[in-house]
Design brief:
Layout (H helix, E strand, L loop, with lengths): L8 E11 L2 E2 L2 E2 L2 E8 L5 E3 L3 E3 L7 E11 L5 E9 L6 E10 L13 E9 L5 E11 L22 E2 L3 E3 L16 E2 L6
Antiparallel strand pairs: 1-7, 1-11, 2-3, 4-5, 4-6, 4-8, 8-9, 10-11, 10-13, 12-14
Length: 191
Amino acid sequence: MDSIQTKPRTLELTVLSAENLRVNGKPATKNVFVVVRAESLTAHTTSCKGNGSNSNGFVSWNEKFVVEVAAHARSIAFEVKCKTSPTGSVRDVGVARVALSDFLGTVVPDHCLQFLCYRLRDWDGLKNGVINFSVRDLAAAPPLGKVVGGGCDGFHGFPEVVGVKSECCSSSSASDNAVVTGIPVWWRNNI
C-alpha cells in the first residue's frame, strides 16, 4: 500500500467559508456550522453562523483548529450542517472528503499554508455548495527565521503551483495577491 502518511501529524486547519449552500432548494442562511473529522472519533465544530439575511447561501467562519491526524488516516471530512428548528434539529447540508495526499507531500512544502476549496455533496450525491479552508502541517514547520530546502514561492527548485494559493510562514509580499488559474507550472519555464 503506497502512502505518504507514515506517522501521526498535527495540522493547523482553518475553516474559512462555504458558498452556494442550499436546504430544500433554498439558500441555507441560518445556524450553519461545520464538523471536521480526520477519520477518528474526535470532531472539531465551528460555531453556528448566518443570521437569516440575504446571504444567498454564503457563510463565513474563519475558525482555526489544531487537528491531530492518526497515522492510519487517509482523509479529512468536512460536514456542513444547519440547525433547522428552535428545538435544535440538525440537518446535513453537504459533505466533502478531502484526501490528505491532496495537500501533504505535494509540490508545495508541507509547512506552507495552502488555501483549498472543495465541492460539497449532499447524501444523494448531488452538488450542494463549496467549502473553503486553509491547512498547514505544524510538525513540518521549519525553525523560525530559517528557510529549509525551498520556500513556498516557487524558488529553490520547487514548482510554483498555478491555481493553488500558497503562503509561506517565513515570508509575505504584496505580490501574493494575484489571481491565478490553471495547472502546475515550473517557475523556470518561459511561457
